[in-house]
Amino acid sequence: MINNSFWKTRAENYNKTSWVKDDHLLNAYLSLIPKNNIYRNILEVGIGTGAVANKVVDMIGPMIGLDKSKEMMSKIDHDGITKVVGDAHDLPFDDNHFDLIYMRNVIHYLENPAIVFAEILRCLKNESIYLFSQVIPFSDEISDEYDELIGRDIHYPNHGEIKDFFSDYIILDEVEYVLEAQSIMNWLNNTCQDEQKKQKIINQHRNTSNTYKNMVNYKEENDDILVDIKHLFILSHK
What is the average per-residue pLDDT within 103-117? Predict the structure, then answer.
């Protein structure tokens, strides 16, 4: 289980991780939001440092961001974002309130994702939009291996597992987006302060299966490891 001290430490370098503020990734994700709808009430579940929210406010308008980490949200500096400290498993909002709710790369930190999906559904107005994004293994076949390579004793749900959480939603669109040649050293330098653990994860990547290496276009270059990272986008409504 990820504790509060993890987020306090991570908040300082979170935005330096290359994928967090990658414009191509963010634009591809947000382009799925239907443009003809009116979004008066918007919520991001797990807003973190506001990397996505900054773009949403500029693109659509003011919104609420919820996160359990005050330290992560302390990095947000935008007048259009109302910050709420709270638990995604018990959203502090009325039923049928939001026109748009979105969540990016949060599900692997949730104790019970099914409860969170039910809470999001409760807070959405009828036919309103839920936009989801998550890093996933390239194949369900390497799901266990993927978790071991991340090295945090948490589970990254695979594509099939995520689809099960949408059983009460109507899925409108589904996109797999690949960020190519992502730096493992950039990720580790900005998320891991334990040098021994960092070296262990590097060695695990070097010694992982050929199946994994072929799927992610693994290569070593200039004392770094580069791999492709797959993101799953799902556009749905209540």
Answer: 96
